[in-house]
Each structure stands twice: as C-alpha cells, then as structure tokens.
C-alpha cells in the first residue's frame, strides 16, 4: 500500500475496486501523437460494475453510509450517469437498496447553436448505463428536468421514512469532501507507480476527481501538473468547483488549504456542452482504439483525450514530458450513443 498522505483511518471504507489499477505505457499512441510520452492509468478496469472513477469515491461514501446504518442509497445524475451505474453495482454488492433519480435534461452552453432538446432515441434512454442500472437491481426514476428530480427525491425519502428505512443521499458524481478522499489516495497510488510523471490529464465533471488528485499531490509535495478538461461547463466554473471542494476537504481533514498553482482547467474540448461530442472527440476515441485497444467514451474520456491530443500537437505539452492520461471509465455510455457509434466507428 502506498504511504498515506494524511491519516484517513477515522474514515470508514468499504472495499469495492482492485487497487492499484494498472499504469500502462502506450507506445503506439505516443508515436501517433508525436510528442510527449503517454501512459494510461486504467481506472476504467478497477473491477466492479464495468468500473470507473466513482468506485474510489464510493469506497468512502458508502463506507460512511454503512457505518451509519443506512439501508437505502439515493443519488442523482443524467440519464447516462456512470456514477449512478457504479452506485447501483456497489449497492448490489453491499446489499443496499439503490434509488437513482436520473434527469433527461442536457446542459447547454448559452449562445451555442447545439440542439437544446434532450436526446430521445432508444439507445440513449434505455441502453448503456440505464440498462445496467436495472440489471444491478436499482430503482430508476426518470425525470424531465431538475425541478422534477427534487420533487422525486422528496417522495422517495418520505416513502422510505414510512417503511422505517434509513436513507443516505449522495450528491451528483459523488463529489463532496468525503468523496474527494478517493482520489486523494489515488494520487499517492500513482506517485508510487511513477514519481517522474510531469502531468496528469483527466476529464472534469462534478470536480471530485480533480479535487482529490489536486489535494493529494499538494499534501504529497508532488510537483505534478494537473490538466482537467471540462466536459460540461466553462473552465472558470469548473475551476471554482475544484477550489471549493479542495477547501472543504482540507477543512474536513484539518489541514491548511493548499494553493493549487499546478491545477489547470481547460474548455478546449467542451464543444457544445455536456453529452455533446464534437468530431474531435470521435477522432480521439478512434485513435485510442486503433493504437492501443483502449475504449474511451463520448461524454468524458473522449473529451479529455481530444484535449490531450490538441495540446500535444499544438506544442502546449513539451515533447520531453511524461503524461498520464487518467482513464476514468464510461464504457457503457458509448452504447448509449449507439447510432453515432455505428457511424463513427468506421471513421
Ligand atoms: C463522473 C465521471 C468523470 C468526472 O469525474 P468528476 O469527479 O465528476 O469530475 C469523468 N469520467 C467519467 C467516465 C465519469 O463517469
């Protein structure tokens, strides 16, 4: 086990994934991009429920829930939420009831010409993560928009109270100070695997993953740069979310809030907004597939990979650098986009 950065023994934890996840050198991808040396940190193959970054957070979030006597977990997400699917799988493993409140509404960048209506094709609404949620035994509540999700949550809580069940509600993406501990420990794991990494590239949604790596690297005194590619909002908003979570996690741990001088958020691959992949995203998905046999998704990792490729090709990342691409999972989402996937796979 890597040296703990701070003592986390007072935080109960349940075992959900396989650690450490592999750190793979990607020679053909490196050659194709023609610049920095690329390694991929395989948090997409960490074990439970098709895997993904939410498992690290859930080990702490569900650890606290179980320790507190919870028997029912409620959480939120978009229709194709990977967080919802991993929560469902973890609840199956732990024997907890899982209620997923999923919203169809897609975020939409103001002023863009992208379609504002939520997707309504069968693959998006019923395949991918949604089908797995049901396979893992979760109760799925589909809502049109955020207001309906709030009402639905209230109803589920009231129903649980009537049945004397003990409920814990987890935030979107599992991103709260407790969830941040998942990637705080991942920073120590990665440093142990390769201390010489110059930069970590990853997607950022609800910001818990980036916040965990950031506070972990700071506490370890590890001078690694963290480049987070926003998938859903402006770089300024995503960056503010990282700072807020790092501050809250530092307070929870009783350590000073670190200055995050090495954390950079980019919106270079954001495109029209959440769940809307650009042609560069599909190109990145094909490139990782054809050079390494690694599967990316169109919502998160495809965007982060497009940002990485763009930064490397434009010289923003020096050819001498060693870069870790944090693969955060998301495979089922690819099948939620089946109509595009079928076309784009031929490329
Ligand atoms: C949730 C998710 C992310 C984003 O992680 P955050 O901690 O929410 O920023 C990235 N990639 C995948 C595949 C995800 O499911």
TrEMBL record:
<protein>
    <submittedName>
        <fullName>D-cysteine desulfhydrase</fullName>
    </submittedName>
</protein>
<dbReference type="GO" id="GO:0019148">
    <property type="term" value="F:D-cysteine desulfhydrase activity"/>
</dbReference>
<dbReference type="InterPro" id="IPR001926">
    <property type="entry name" value="TrpB-like_PALP"/>
</dbReference>
<dbReference type="InterPro" id="IPR027278">
    <property type="entry name" value="ACCD_DCysDesulf"/>
</dbReference>
<dbReference type="GO" id="GO:1901605">
    <property type="term" value="P:alpha-amino acid metabolic process"/>
</dbReference>
<dbReference type="Pfam" id="PF00291">
    <property type="entry name" value="PALP"/>
</dbReference>
<feature type="domain" description="Tryptophan synthase beta chain-like PALP">
    <location>
        <begin position="15"/>
        <end position="329"/>
    </location>
</feature>
<feature type="modified residue" description="N6-(pyridoxal phosphate)lysine">
    <location>
        <position position="54"/>
    </location>
</feature>
<dbReference type="InterPro" id="IPR036052">
    <property type="entry name" value="TrpB-like_PALP_sf"/>
</dbReference>
<feature type="active site" description="Nucleophile">
    <location>
        <position position="81"/>
    </location>
</feature>
<keyword id="KW-0663">Pyridoxal phosphate</keyword>
<comment type="similarity">
    <text>Belongs to the ACC deaminase/D-cysteine desulfhydrase family.</text>
</comment>
